[in-house]
Specification:
The complex is a heterodimer. By secondary structure, chain A is an alpha+beta fold. In chain A, 24% of the residues lie in helices and 34% in strands. Chain B has a domain of 213 residues: MetI-like (MetI-like fold). The chains are: A alpha+beta, B mainly alpha.
């Protein structure tokens, strides 16, 4: 993996605002041409991390390296990164083409050349003929494209995107996701993307960085973080999950919901408390007598592609996604194959994240 | 003149408002069977009619009539040629007196002087006010809020009082000269000149420049400044390419709010200029109160109003969104 250059390197970054740490000892590097997404709930520090790279905030501790050079205290206008801001921050006093040309004019590019590049950019973002429009005459999606063009025209080495699709409706968001990914691949620019939308993160990224409370919880490919979440928080945040407290009886055998289940995890010791995570689509519904456990169908919701059913087993509820509907009130059996039972260290609720990140120093990709 | 009868006038006025209001209630209830929402605007309509429309009609009436109430354009001719009535006399007296006919330029002169003073005052206010507003709006400035308060506090005091206070600072036995004397320096003549009048005007009107600019600067999205910096603009460049263009509405309304009262200033020239200078506002006041010539006074007021409307029109063109004019 070390064949690509580390473009941005965050080392031991901490940031405090008025005595509260919004970032705690963040270590993260971004390689060239990578699409990295910072994913987490609001207030997790993802935007602050982005702003530190953009130069709008300075870390309280730690250094930011760009191509190996320390840029921690470099002002934004001297950095080779461009940002797409949450609400686009287009200049209301300039029309579309002047907005796009802004950076080029600052860089004193000849007007004839600017004209050519602006035209190319308008073409790239599908806004030919919109050059003379005022920005407030554009729809949200069009403003978004102008913001992208305004950043990309400067040919930045890194593009920072701060929840850029947050203000768009679902259909447009999906389109823009694909479009951004396509641009990233064709232009060969490194993207650092911030979002709280796990689906967006999984669709677009090469690498997903899951954050919570100023810490990095997990770094990995979308498949890694989905299939092998490091703890129940990540499991719950990325996709839907059934999370139960359980006991690891011995290697490859876990007890929860009042039954013993074979699993594939080992090394937790015997009779240790653990969190058991199962994805809703990983539970199979069978005839009552064929199941490992049996329960009653409590509710059924139609979700488009699948049905979401809640099955009550004793005191516990299992959320299950299946394309086959069961009658509410009927009794069914459930089976879970060992591979789909994920065992995790129990998360001490609320304050538990701190102990996690020792094992998770950002570099262990 | 009303004088002692003022209370009678006031009571009559209030009675008219109350009765008119009552009449409107009755009418609107009758018509729609209930009180319509637009009805609640009627006090303002009445107010506008009584205190804006009626005075304008009266002024126009006075401006277009002579003392006996007959229609005439003499008042405007008088404005253009302050010797008009004398010249008319000379003309009637015969051709041998025609040589004595000269155009009097007093009124026009005062108007030009007022416009000039207002222009200078506005420019000084802009030069002082923009930086002040900028510092006040800067969230990183510790003392911005204090500066806002410092600008507001004097506005709680009466305008006349503030102007007279300057007298006690500038006059021969005033604060500055006392200090100079104490330091063994010669006395400085600070009052009774243009500079003193200008000082008084700038002092009184500066807040009207500062606050609209301050408002437009605080309304500005700080992410736009970040965006400019992100695109490579250093702080100076950001200021000129983003901050200044986006504060234009505030600047326009500041200019409006300073220029208008500046042109019509009166009292300040009399107090700080000591009668050596007269501005158009003083001239109107003089014609009304001291000469008792309501007809000429009204004509001058109309000229003033026309000028203000023209300049408002020009400013509106500079600020098509009308952001600034909302304050005026």
């Amino acid at each position: 993996m070390a064949d690509k250059v580390r473009l941005i390197d965050l080392r031991n970054i901490s940031k405090e605002f008025d005595g509260t740490y919004v970032l705690q000892n963040i270590n993260l590097y971004i390689r060239e041409n990578e699409f990295v997404t910072l994913l987490g709930p609001s207030g997790c520090g993802k935007t602050t991390t982005l702003r530190i790279i953009g130069g709008f905030e300075h870390p309280s501790e730690g250094v930011v390296l760009f191509e190996g050079k320390d840029i921690t205290h470099l002002p934004p206008y001297k950095r080779k990164v461009n940002t797409i801001f949450q609400k686009y921050a287009l200049f209301p006093h300039l029309n579309v083409q002047d907005n796009i040309a802004f950076g080029q004019r600052i860089a004193k590019v000849p007007e004839a050349e600017i004209k050519k590049r602006v035209a190319k950019m308008l073409d790239l973002v599908d806004l030919e003929g919109y050059g003379k429009r005022r920005v407030e005459q554009l729809s949200g999606g069009q403003q978004q494209r102008v913001a992208i063009a305004r950043a990309l025209i400067n040919e930045p080495q890194v593009l920072l995107l701060d929840e850029p699709l947050g203000a768009l409706d679902l259909k447009l968001r999906k389109e823009m996701q694909l479009e951004l990914k396509r641009m990233q691949q064709t232009l060969g620019i490194t993207f650092l993307y911030v979002t709280h939308d796990q689906e967006e993160a999984l669709t677009m990224s090469d690498t997903v960085v899951v954050m919570n409370r100023g810490n990095i919880l997990q770094i990995g490919t979308p498949k890694d973080v989905y299939d092998e979440p490091v703890n129940a928080f990540v499991a719950d945040f990325i996709g839907e999950s059934n999370i139960y407290p359980g006991t690891m009886l011995e290697d490859k055998l876990v007890r929860f919901a009042g039954f013993n289940f074979p699993c594939v995890d080992k090394g937790f010791g015997s009779n240790q408390p653990v969190d058991v995570v199962i994805r809703p689509e990983d539970i199979n519904i069978v005839k009552e007598e064929d199941g490992q456990i049996a329960g009653v169908v409590e509710s059924v919701l139609f979700k488009g592609v699948h049905y979401e059913m809640i099955i009550e087993v004793g005191e516990l509820e299992f959320k299950i996604h299946s394309t086959v509907m069961q009658e509410p009130g009927s009794r069914v059996g459930l089976t879970i194959i060992p591979f789909n039972i994920h065992i995790m260290q129990p998360m001490a609720r609320e304050a538990g994240e701190d102990e996690q990140d020792e094992s998770l120093e950002g570099d262990d990709l | 003149m009303p004088g002692a009868n003022i209370s009678v006038w006031m009571i009559t006025g209030i009675a008219v408002i109350v009765l008119g209001f009552a009449a409107l209630v009755v009418l609107s209830v009758r018509r729609s069977g209930g009180i319509k929402r637009s009805f609640f605007a009627s006090p303002y309509t009445l107010w506008m009619i009584l205190f804006t429309l009626v005075p304008v009609v009266l002024i126009t009436y006075y401006a277009l009539t002579d003392a006996s109430g007959a229609f005439t354009l003499d008042n405007f001719k008088n404005f253009w040629d302050s010797n008009y009535s004398v010249n008319k006399l000379y003309a009637e007296m015969g051709p041998e007196y025609a040589v004595l006919i000269t155009r009097g330029s007093v009124n026009i002169g005062i108007l030009v002087y007022s416009l000039w003073m207002a222009l200078i005052c506005t420019l000084i206010c802009l030069a002082l006010g923009y930086p002040a507003a900028y510092f006040m709006a800067d969230k990183n400035m510790k003392y911005g809020a204090i500066l806002v308060v410092l600008f507001i506090i004097p506005m709680w005091m009466n305008f006349l009082l503030r102007t007279i206070a300057w007298m006690s600072i500038l006059e021969d036995s005033g604060l500055i000269n006392t200090v100079l004397k104490w330091l063994g320096l010669p006395k400085a003549q600070l009052m009774y000149n243009n500079t003193a009048v200008l000082l008084g005007m700038v002092y009184n009107f500066l807040p009207f420049m500062v606050f609209p600019i301050y408002t437009s600067l605080t309304k500005m999205d700080s992410r736009l400044l970040e965006a400019a910096q992100d695109l490579g603009a250093n702080p100076t460049r950001t200021f000129w390419t983003v901050t200044v263009p986006l504060s234009i509405p505030g600047v326009v309304s500041g200019i409006t709010m300073v220029f208008m009262p500046s042109v019509t200033t009166f009292f300040i020239p009399r107090i700080l200029g000591g009668g050596n200078t007269m501005m158009f506002g003083d001239l109107i006041e003089n014609r009304f109160l001291f000469q008792g010539n309501w007809n000429l006074g009204s004509a001058l007021s109309l000229v003033m109003m026309a000028l203000i409307l023209v300049s408002l029109g020009i400013l509106r063109r500079a600020d098509p969104e009308g952001e600034g004019s909302g304050i005026v």
